[in-house]
Specification:
Elements: H1 18-27, H2 30-41, E1 48-52, H3 58-66, E2 71-76, H4 79-92, E3 97-100, E4 113-119, H5 127-140, E5 141-152, H6 162-167, H7 170-174, H8 178-187, E6 191-201, E7 204-212
Parallel strand pairs: 1-2, 1-4, 2-3, 4-5
Antiparallel strand pairs: 5-7, 6-7
Helix pairs in contact: 2-3
Length: 217
């Protein structure tokens, strides 16, 4: 019987674009956007943090550089991106656990993380995958923990920039509206979902979202 293998959209949208992804995103302000995401999260000593859809590792490496006293995990289904992430972590001399897997089937115990991050990943997912991913985020967050999400804006944000159109289809962006993402967070059991910031970049308009995990009744 043939083994079933799930498909996924590569970290840069297409395999051919992966070598271009890091330098272009850096050039167009991706590092500043990710730093703002971390500033909103108020990471503390001893926290355990997870980046879902970590891609080539830019965010997890930044977290570990800025917060060497926290445990950092990243997960992504793309083995090519993870190879790059591991090489970058070695060059940066930082210790990060990088796992291959899907965001809607997280291989971690309940209530294992204080912070979960998602950076330019959610729009890759189909609606059902988004719903399952956010439920998984709620499951692995500790009570009082929080989700911090950065992504391209949806239709209400206006025209996206060149990089968004190059790496991602309009179909993958059209379901990324603020109201839709906030509704999905709420349906997943995350509390106080909200937009906490916006940024206009050369590769498109972006939005920052935040939600928290409260003790289950």
């Amino acid at each position: 019987m043939e083994e079933y293998r799930r498909t996924y959209i590569p970290a840069a949208g297409h395999d051919w674009a992966l070598p271009l992804y890091d330098p272009i995103v850096k050039l167009l302000g991706g590092d500043r956007a990710r730093k703002a995401l971390l500033d909103q999260a108020a990471i503390q000593t001893g926290h355990r943090v997870l980046d879902i859809g970590c891609g080539t590792g830019a965010l997890v490496i930044l977290i570990k550089r800025l917060h060497p006293d926290v445990d950092v995990f990243g997960i992504d289904p793309d083995p090519k991106a993870l190879i790059r992430a591991r090489r970058k972590a070695e060059r940066a001399a930082v210790l990060i656990q990088l796992d291959q897997g899907f965001s809607d089937e997280l291989p971690y115990p309940d209530a294992s993380f204080d912070r979960v991050f998602s950076s330019f990943m959610l729009h890759h997912l189909q609606t059902g995958e988004k719903e399952r991913t956010l439920r998984e985020v709620r499951r692995v967050l500790k009570p009082g923990g929080s989700l911090h999400l950065l992504d391209f804006g949806g239709p209400e944000s206006g025209q996206n920039g060149f990089l968004a159109r190059l790496f991602h289809s309009s179909h993958s962006l059209k379901d990324n509206s603020d109201s839709r993402i906030i509704a999905l967070m709420s349906q997943a059991g995350l509390a106080n979902p909200m937009v906490v910031g916006r940024r206009t970049m050369l590769f498109g308009k972006t939005a920052y979202y935040q939600a928290s995990a409260v003790p289950r009744p």
